[in-house]
Amino acid sequence: MNVTEDLMKAFGFDQPILITEGLLKMIFGSAETLLCFDTNQFEDYSKIVADRFDPEKKAARCRDVFPKDCEKAFDMGARLARKDA
After folding, report:
1. Cα–Cα nearest to 74, from 36, 22, 40, 20
2. Distance CA 85, CA 77 (A)
3. How many CA atoms lie within 13 A of 78 on its CB side?
4. What is the pLDDT of residues 63-84, one digit of tens each?
5. Residue 35 near residue 76, CB atoms below 8 Å
6. Which of 7, 22, 24, 83 could cross-link with 31 by S-S, CB 3.0 to 4.6 Å?
7. How far apart are CA 24 and CA 26, in angstroms?
8. Are 74 and 66 in contact (CB under 8 A)?
9. What's the pLDDT at 22?
10. Taking the CB of residue 13, how many other CB atoms lie within 10 A of it?
11. Given phi > 0 = left and psi -120 to 50 = alpha, else beta, which region is 53?
């Protein structure tokens, strides 16, 4: 998701996500949502004109936060795989 968590909430993007998760819980008994914020949209920001993005902040977030998000996704996958095993 190429917005920050604060912007997601300010724009109300969290509401459809929460509603969908709630519906899935009602139907299937459980559901989890994993959101990744402020993701990279371009591999190399120096090759494009995208003035609204700070390439240094994007690089730092990709380096520092994205690996943790990937770990959370892996852990979620492992939990989901174990539920019916």
Report:
1. 36
2. 13
3. 6
4. 999 999 999 999 999 998 887 6
5. no
6. 24
7. 5
8. no
9. 97
10. 14
11. beta
Cα angle 71-62-44, degrees, rounded to a multiple of 5: 135
CA triplet 64, 68, 35: central angle to 5 degrees? 110
pTM exceeding the 0.90 threshold for the entire prediction: no
- Alpha helices in the chain, H assignment, sequence order: 5-10, 14-28, 55-64, 66-83
Distance CA 85, CA 79 (A): 10
Q: Could you tell me the two tokens for 38?
A: 């402020």
Length of the chain: 85
The single residue listed with the structure tokens 């591999």 is: 43
